[in-house]
Protein: Glycosyltransferase
Amino acid sequence: MNIIFLGIEACLLLLTIFCYFLGKKYHILKQSLIIIYIVTTAIYLIWRTGWTLPNDNVLSLILGIILLLAELGGFCLSIVFYRLFFKKYHRPVKKLNAYKKNQYPSIDVFIATYNEEIGILQRSIVAAKLMNYPVKSLVNIYVCDDGSRDEIKYLCQRLGVHYVAREEHKHAKAGNLNHAMSVSNGNLIVTMDADMVLRTDFLEKTVGYFENPNMGFIQTPQTFFNDDPYQFNLFATNVIGNDQDFFMRNIEQQKDAFNATMYVGSNAIFRREALESIGGFATGVITEDMATGMLLQAKKWQTGFVNENLASGLAPETFGDLIKQRDRWARGNIQVGKKWHPWRIKGLSFMQRLIYTDGIHYWFSGIYKLIFLLAPIFFLVFGLYSLETNLEQILTFWLPSFVASQLAFNLVSEKKQTVMLSNIYETATAPFMAFGVFNELFLKSKQKFAVTRKGVNTENSFYNWRTAWPIIVLLVLSLFGLIRGILLIVGVWESSIPKDGIYINIFWLFYNSFSLILASYLSNERPRLRKSERFLSDTIIQIKFTNQKVVEGQILDWNEDGARIKLSAIIEDLSLHGQFDIMGNKFKFKKMWQRQINGQSLIGVTFKELDMSAYEYIIRHTYAQNSQIYNSIIYSNRLWHIIVKWWVEILSKRKAH
Structure:
């Protein structure tokens, strides 16, 4: 009988691997792999429920039930996830020419701000003014300043846009946007965060969908032109993508198939009539964006997702800020579930209810992950069982499910994400998300909206023990459990714990420890010296220095603050100041440094006294460049690279000091 089971399992594993490799080309095999995962995991969970709960004492039974519930919760999340991806969806393109001439809708652009720096806000305003639209007079820009700052009012006057402030600051961002609705009258409303920069073709790629009178809003992905803390603190620029990319580009696209696209607070365009039908932007919860989109869909408005990079902004720049942001999102989703539970709202379809419930349920995954991290520690460190089985049964029931889960996710994510990367992200935030959800559900609710810091600059690196200590504690306990497990296997440490259980939990701890080690790296906050992100360029220029030297050069990268320029010849006696012209725009600069690298002369310059024409030129060709010009990076997701690079960089910097 054992030989028969082994043969069946071997065939199943081979079929799983076959579907994985050919599923990249044939969608039906991708669907087959999803079915294999669901069936094998269902069988595994049935076995777990009926035959593995410990019964030697009450505490072990409780721990066993908790672990089983976490596994069942994770499986429920994966069921909805794979339902979304079972059939690939792409919204048919609808261009601006869907409208007849002279019938274009009027547009109000709301840029919500509270305490962002003027430099961040100015480029967002200028980019909004640069957007292409057949009738420019139909586009009005409103800077909605909930900080009521005189300097922002002056900036708006200088740039020729509307400044909106209110006397009472109720309901945070949602209240700010609702007030802006009361002082404007455009047919369509674009909502933007202050750090988000619209590309020149944003309106050309989104407005056409509103030719359909039932279209309520169109969401575009939030993308980022700076490294998030995962990319930056792990020295993984161009190796791994932003941790929001998979949700913003892939999951949102698949939700669109069920008219369940989630409004994510920025980079979206609404029909005013639709917003008015629900009383404006939802208030009373932290995540007013999610609630607003759901209420519109409950009113039978159609919604859509345009999967193009039409606006980019700033990701959180420290791991501590990322944690605060995710805590806010987690609490906000719980608040939405309490105030507008998807199964109580009239008008939503079954799939819409399921998808929004899944979105709220997702934030419980921090609790599930914490349970998965603690279970093997309880077993090998404290001798507390959470499941009772042997190695043969584990290999029979768990192994096919595990292999299928790894391969199915990697296949479906199409290199935007991997199981191990996802595991690292979830591990790093699990203690904080678990606390936030538990606190919001049972203890003290936080209703206050907190703006994520943007434009953070630091000159020194530091290790943030406040974000690191839960991970460090879990890592130390996991490593202690590993050492104890190995000593138990070789007989140095005597115990009555069955060896099969030790083998299982040693593997489990190895898996967890890998993620915990990488998660511990994230609290090492690296210095961010530049005020603005740099953009690559190949523009050829003629540079005139104040000592009358004229040198040909090429801009390698630049932004509104300065540039890095390669000179055509090695020249030693360049003066400190100079100027170059591009398309009639004058760029005066101060030379900050000059270096000889690989036989080439490079200079770094800081711009000074840029007039608005030159400033607009830079914004148009950097942050706001047309989406057809912008090239997305393809990431390798090589974890070994991250591990090696982190240690090389850290040790080299210590040696330098």
User: Anything to note?
Assistant: Residues 564 and 604 are 5 Å apart (CA to CA). Residues 58-85 form the longest helix (28 residues). The two ends are 65 Å apart (CA to CA). Residues 535-620 form a domain with the Thrombin, subunit H fold (CATH 2.40.10.220).
